[in-house]
Write a structure and sequence with these properties.
globular; mainly alpha; Serine Threonine Protein Phosphatase 5, Tetratricopeptide repeat
């Protein structure tokens, strides 16, 4: 029986640990986290390409601090943008349109304008990607 060199085994173990550690989201996010802490953790997860975990943190922030319309706007924008980065264009479009509807509602004037501005910049790209995908999937004549 051949032995794997110690360095190779250590590298393999580290790779498996990082892969498994980054791919699974916690089942329960601690209750005591502030909205800022939840958003910080979501951004860190997104920066590490752990999009499922990032979405979980954003959704938790929106659920726990849902009375804050600004939190809803920020969460919807961030999740929609993650979907865009993942090529989940339909989900992205739906959330961007929902976000823009918030700005048309009664709380619209009190919402931070940056999420509307960003959504209006990204939404046409999402719509173009959906159109290209539909054109590609259409049967050729």
């Amino acid at each position: 029986m051949k032995r794997i060199p110690l360095l190779a085994a250590a590298i393999l173990a580290l790779g498996l640990t990082l892969t498994l550690g980054c791919s699974s989201a916690p089942k329960v996010i601690p209750e005591g986290l502030s909205s800022s802490e939840l958003i910080q953790r979501a951004q860190e997860a997104s920066d590490s390409y752990n999009y499922d975990l990032a979405i979980q943190y954003y959704r938790t922030a929106m659920e726990r601090y849902g009375t804050d319309a600004s939190m809803q706007a920020m969460g919807q924008y961030e999740i929609a943008f993650i979907y865009y980065k993942q090529d989940k264009f339909q989900e992205s479009e739906d959330l961007f349109k929902s976000l823009l509807a918030l700005y048309d509602g009664p709380s619209g004037p009190s919402l931070p304008p940056r999420y509307k501005i960003l959504a209006l910049k990204v939404l046409p790209k999402v719509e173009a990607a959906l159109a290209a995908k539909a054109k590609k999937a259409a049967p050729k004549k």
